[in-house]
Specification:
Layout: H1 2-10, H2 36-42, H3 66-75
Organism: Pongo abelii (Sumatran orangutan)
GO molecular function, one term: cargo receptor activity
Region (Disordered): 1-38, 56-76
């Protein structure tokens, strides 16, 4: 029996092979490229309603306007 142990150790390769490496975070698969068409299609519609509290003041050129309101809220 001791001969079997010696021969398996002397053949140059260990009995157990190393386990394959797990993919690191850098090698993680990325999602599809986000093109302009994809983003426009994704954000069309009314969206989701939510409550928020804005703190701050931002001067706006007009009294109304969705784009202007959105830009102003993003600054705050």
């Amino acid at each position: 029996m001791s001969n079997e142990v010696e021969t398996s150790a002397t053949n140059g390769q260990p009995d157990q092979q190393a386990a394959p490496k797990a993919p690191s975070k850098k090698e993680k698969k990325k999602g599809p490229e986000k093109t302009d068409e994809y983003l426009l299609a994704r954000f069309k519609g009314d969206g989701v309603k939510y409550k928020a509290k804005l703190i701050g003041i931002d001067d706006v050129p007009d009294a109304r306007g969705d784009k202007m309101s959105q830009d102003s809220m993003m600054k705050l």
